[in-house]
Amino acid sequence: MPILPTPHPSKATIVSRQGRSRIVECESVAPMRFLSPYFSEEAASLILSSYGGGMVQGDRIAIDLHIEKDARLFLGTQANSRVYKNDRDLPTSQIITAKVDEGAKAVFLPDPLVLHKGSRFHQQQHWQVAPHAGLLIGEWFQCGRSDSGECFAYHEYDSLIEISGEEGLWIREPFSSKPEGQDPRQTGRFGDANLMLTLFAVGEAQPLLREALEVFAQGQREYTQVPVLSEKEIRSSPTDLRAWVQLEDRPVSIYRALGKTRADFDPLWRALEKVLATPDWLGPEAQLPMCRQSV
Predict the structure, then answer these.
(1) Tens digit of pLDDT for each residue in 150-171?
(2) What pTM, to 2 d.p., does this model score?
(3) Is residue 4 part of a domain?
(4) Is 197 among the domain residues?
(5) Is residue 5 part of a domain?
(6) CA 77 to CA 110: how far, in whole Å?
(7) What is the count of structural domains for the chain?
(8) Which residues contact 157 (CB under 8 A, 6 or more apart)?
(9) How confident is the model at residue 113, as a pLDDT?
């Protein structure tokens, strides 16, 4: 999955000062821009936005983040991350490189990625996590503008998430979808679902995610390694797959869920908001943007 380098990335540094997290460096490079609305007394926030309401062919976005010792960050998006039609074979790309220092906590919960008809999108995330730090990442993908009947009409989607610790790489999670060559509706892929959410919990975030998921324990499958799902195992209901993956030798947990609409995920967001809104994480007054949207 080759991604051309971006000459000058957007950058942000978050530090902890007297128990409060502050952004001390913030540089946006077009076509991406950072917004920083008030989030809570304890945590800083960065919202990824774009000048044109989405990403067009040829856009190359690079983001470098440093969450320093004991700092806390909520990273999100202003709205659905839309990738528009590509008719000149110029893929859109985004690379996020981030370092989470000792005692720091970072939460990245974006809105869904929506690939429009004819689009091509390559993305990578590279996270370096120190001991006694916490990281929660959500990768949320929608098949297209499903409300208007556009599903899996994009040309190409490639994603790579890498999470490392001091001793080296902990997990490398690639995902590739090319609907013209392989039908995403096949059993073992999306089936009749339109959205797929994957949550990665690292270090101090592992017990937090497990607590949030307790309410969904019924019908959930638990694995010690990434499962290969047969046709009979794929879902516990016509619209739902929930699989929990615990990597025994690495401090990483993975949770994956499929759904037909965004509303299918509302109970999960409310459960996550409850466990994140604590003094140890994002602060008692923290509200996840997706919970406000679902009210």
Answers:
(1) 899 999 999 999 999 988 999 9
(2) 0.87
(3) no
(4) yes
(5) no
(6) 5
(7) 1
(8) 115, 120, 121, 141, 175, 176, 177, 178
(9) 92
